[in-house]
Amino acid sequence: xxxxxxxxxxxxxxxxTINYYKNKSKTFKxxxxxMGGESEEREISIKTGEAVFSALLRSxxxxxxxxxxxxxxxYLKNFDAAFIxxxxxxxxxxxxxxxxxxxxxxxxxxxxxxxxxxMDKFITRxxxxxxxxxxxxxxxxxxDEAIKxxxxxxxxxxxxxxxxxxxxxxxxIIREKDEKKIRKAVNEAFRFSxxxxxxxxxxxxxxxIGLIEKIPLSVIEIVPQDDEFFSFQAKYKGNTNYIIPPKxxxxxxxxxxxxxxxxxxxxxxxxxxxxxxFKTKRGDNKPYFxxxxxxxxxxERSLLPKIANFxxxxxxxxxxxxxxxxxxKISKR
Length: 333
Fold this sequence. Notes:
- By secondary structure, the chain is α+β, with helices and mostly antiparallel strands.
- The protein has two domains: about 1-130 and about 205-325, D-amino Acid Aminotransferase, Chain A, domain 1 (2-Layer Sandwich), CATH 3.30.470; about 135-200, ATP-grasp fold, A domain (Dna Ligase, domain 1).
- It has helices spanning about 10-25, 40-60, 95-105, 110-120, 120-130, 145-155, 180-190, 230-235, 250-265, 305-310, 315-325; strands spanning about 30-35, 65-70, 80-85, 135-140, 160, 170-175, 195-200, 205-210, 215-225, 240-245, 275-280, 285-295.
- A five-stranded antiparallel sheet has the order 10-9-8-11-12.
- Strand 8 and strand 9 (about 215-225) form a beta hairpin.
- The relative contact order is 0.17.
């Protein structure tokens, strides 16, 4: 499918970009696909890693699976590129990216600085506060502080979520000032992070934009059927409808979100393949930035491959193009 929105990349730009990075992927003699990890997202990481590994083999790339944690990181010196499929802590937070920088192994995903920035939801909110529309937000580092914010400082409904986690773990929507329910939601969020983010609940449709090397491919609307938000269950196990192009979002809103996504990637020099999530408010045509995912999932249910497929990019071509973006990045900052 060709370009629909003005601020999407056109077919020529996409074809040129994908082919350029596919050709670069062939210069790597031996590639490790890093998956697993120690976060709550380990299971999803392994699914992503297995899918990526299979795609590389089908494309003739000499690849090996590396399931973290490993006993000897020096084993990674046997490879001349790393495809990072880790999710959550130690994967998307800059930790493994920094290790690979030290080992001088080119890797996919943004650099350690950008990865750490966008893993921390509160720091992300602060960095983008004057640049893009966002929901009203607070952060709390203790149970009592979080309960006080929900009871006295933020309007309801609101969202309570872990500040330093992903895959929608530990997220709750609070609709009434019931301290018992609020305390339960706060404790659930603290299971996954040392601080929690408390945000205004946005009641409009949710959508996400996929980008590769700063160019927006397209946008997909997310409509969970069995939950009121895009929860872990809705993402990986539930019944969710994915609509390309979106049906219930104003074209103006989508155009603005596409511009914002490209702007963020250019402003913070975010390369590779990323996904930018947005939500809307009823009666408001602004796209509200939720988060930027520096290592999007690559499973059969994942959003980035769906977006790429809509623009005529096969899964295997997408994987090879992402591998072609692998590089050392800190020296270029």
